[in-house]
Amino acid sequence: MAEHIQIGDLSPRIQYSGDGVLTAFAFPFPIFTDADMLAYVDGALSTPVVDYTVTGAGVSSGGTVTFLVPPANGTVITLRRTMAIARTSDFQESGEFRARVINDELDTLTALIQQVNDTARRALHVGPTDTALQTQLPGKDARAGQFLAFDSNGDPIAAAGAVDTLAVSPFGATLLGAVDATAARTALGALAPDGDGSTLSGIVTGATVSQKANIALNAFRIAVNGGLSVQNMVDGVVDEFEDESGVDTVASSNQSHDAAGNYYVNSSAPNQISQASGTAIGSLTDFAALSTAFDGVSSQLRANSTGKNPSVTGLNNFIGKDWGVGVTNTVSKFVIYGSSDPYPLTLGADGVKLQGSTDNFATSIVDLWSGNGSGINGEVLTVDTGIDISTAYRYHRIALEGDTAGGGVTCAELEFFEPIPPPDMNLQSNAFTALAQPDSVLLVLWHEFVDAVILNTDLIAQVSIDGGATWDPAPLGLAVSLTGNQQILTGTADVSARIGTSLKWRVSTFNSKQQRLRGVCQQWN
Question: 486 and 375, same structural domain?
Answer without folding.
Answer: no
